[in-house]
User: Which sequence fits this backbone?
């Protein structure tokens, strides 16, 4: 699965805060709405795991 596929699942809307993270320490690479350029830069990255929270935040961990 890639980041773009998560966006098409219906879990993310314009008000969702997206965190793109990497590594065991969950280093944040990017934070913002799905349509922000810094988030879109990771669209094609392979996803290791992701967590959606009911406070409209999603944490996406990408492969190193």
Assistant:
């Amino acid at each position: 699965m890639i980041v773009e596929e998560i966006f098409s699942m219906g879990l993310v809307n314009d008000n969702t805060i997206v965190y793109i993270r990497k590594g065991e320490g969950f280093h944040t690479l990017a934070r913002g709405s799905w349509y922000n350029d810094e988030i879109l830069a990771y669209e094609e990255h392979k996803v290791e795991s992701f967590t959606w929270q009911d406070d409209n935040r999603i944490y996406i961990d990408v492969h190193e």
Summary: The chain has a mean pLDDT of 95. The helical segments are 3-7, 37-40. The beta strands are 17-22, 27-32, 47-53, 57-62.
